Amino acid sequence: MAFRKENHTKETCSASLNAVKDALYVLNGKWKLPLILTLQDGPKRFNEIQKSIGDITPKILSKELKDLELNEFVIRKVFSTTPVTVTYELTEYSGSLDRVIDELRNWGMQHRERLVMNRKTAPVLEEVLG
Question: In 3D, which of 24, 47, 27 has the Cα closest to residue 37?
Fold first, then answer.
């Protein structure tokens, strides 16, 4: 991996580190980005979100949705129907993560492909070297 040294000072390093820490604080855990991805195709009710995500418990889902709401990525809308209907949808601000999500997706696909390729070649190398 190439390390960019241009404009590398203690101050810029510290600022970069703080920015990454801030981003990770907001998007921490394994559920925030999958929740955002799930809501990209439109508003959903709580149970719809839980079904599309899979292994998330209602307690954790509730906490994660509240965190996303506090950080202005999700809006919770309550409709006065009988029974009350509650939906969750992405805010316009959540679109600021589009490039981050795209880059993570691309990297994840490359990483998975690399691991699969290395698993296929590892036994062959052992036989040749063995």
Answer: 27
Per the document, the length of the chain is: 130
Amino acid at 80: S
The model's pTM: 0.76
36 CB contacts (<8 Å, ≥6 apart)? 68, 73, 74, 90, 94, 97, 101
- What are 14's two structure tokens? 């510290």
Q: Helix, strand or coil for residue 121? A: helix
Q: How confident is the model at residue 117 (pLDDT cuts 50, 70, 90)?
A: confident
**Tens of pLDDT, residues 44-74:** 999 999 999 999 999 999 999 999 999 999 9
Contact 40, 90 (CB under 8 A): yes
Domains of the chain: 10-93 (1.10.10.10)
Query: Encoding tokens for residue 12?
Result: 């810029």
